[in-house]
Amino acid sequence: MADTETSSAASTGTRADADPAVAGGDDAARGVLGVSRGAANPSDSGKTDTPGHADDAGHADDAGNADGPARGTARARARGGDFRQRLLDGLAEEIAQGSYRTSTVAGIVRRAQTSRRTFYQYFTDRDQCFLVLMTEATAEMIRQVSSAVDRRAPWPDQVRAAVEAWFRYAEAEPAIIHSWIRDVPALGEKSRQLQRMQLEGFIGLAQGLGREAARHGGRPRVSRESATILVGGLRELVATTVEDGRSVAGMTEAAVQAALALLVSD
Q: Is residue 239 domain-shared with residue 138, that is, in the same domain?
């Protein structure tokens, strides 16, 4: 089957209000597969697929599942005529109610109220759909962390705000964030670029905040090595907390203190 996602997902661009200090990190996360959250897909125009398509195998009555365990990301997305977005929502719900490993194309299209035919117009396979979803999740997480930080605040307060925003996102999306940490690497070579771009996005964010704080009179210096250690540590803390069935929010203060010890120095 021809790879149609390359052209279908090529909606790019940056936020009009993007912070120049962190735009590089944000763009890196979003640019892996050329997608941006909520962007209209140029190839959606003219699509006439309907929820009752025969390929849905009679599962059109499952549309209401957005009120189930899936939270945050899936609920925040529009569920209109954007079939690509609905398919991404469907996969997010599959992950939230089970896991990526147990998800199926049949389950995705059932939740999206569309057809297998439409799925393969946008994605070559389930893995590609997953990589696009994780790219968007990364971009959204970076956006939330970036917007939570007051650039005029003292550097320790900025570090606290950034880590707290990271953990708020993880608390709202435990299944998605766990899949982002554990399932993406499991895809092997096909996910290598995404893994590297995820890391670069967060490193760029941390270093961008540090540079801006330094310009405003502070003395923060965020080395690449420190940012890498911080990102890796936060990811593993979130993953093990979710796996142990504990509250991610309950780990926030420990994460803040670790980040302060690493990034706030004389």
A: yes
Residue 28 forms part of a structural domain: no
Q: For residue 116, what are the CA distances in angstroms to 86, 112, 123? A: 13, 10, 10
CATH classification at residue 166 = 1.10.357.10
Alpha-carbon distance of 168 to 146, in angstroms, equals 13
Q: Nearest CA to 164 among 46, 44, 254, 68? A: 254
pLDDT at site 213: 86
With respect to residue 26, please indicate whether it lies within any of the assigned structural domains. no
Q: Which residue range is the domain that position 174 belongs to? A: 126-263
Residues 170, 175, 179, 180: is their CA dihedral positive or negative? Answer: negative
Instruction: Say what the pTM is.
Output: 0.70
Is the Cβ–Cβ distance between 23 and 209 less than 8 Å? no
Q: What per-residue confidence (pLDDT) applies to 221?
A: 81
pLDDT value, residue 218: 67
Q: How many structural domains are present in the chain?
A: 2
Specify the residue for token string 């005529």: 81
Residue 45, pLDDT above cutoff 60: no
Measured in degrees and rounded to the nearest 5, phi and psi for residue 248 equal: -65, -40
* Same domain for 246 and 207: yes
Dihedral angle sign, alpha carbons of residues 15, 95, 183, 83: negative
